[in-house]
Amino acid sequence: MFWKRNEKRKAGYDRAGKVPVIRASICTGEKVAGFKEEKTGRFEDLMVIRGEKDLQTFLRRYGVEEDEIKKEW
How many angstroms separate the Cα of 45 from the Cα of each of 2, 3, 4, 28, 37? Predict the structure, then answer.
């Protein structure tokens, strides 16, 4: 009731200036999804990806296709 978040609206991002990226740690395997600015290289982390369910939530929330995502190590 009060504790559930309403995910009806998609959160937008600047498609012209930012690229969706998943950063993964080689040592720990931790994955973080966010957006990287093309000009400056600044990374904005938005959520931790623990599994396929979290990845699907990220894709749905920000309107991103899975083939658009770049992976960085």
Answer: 26, 23, 22, 17, 12
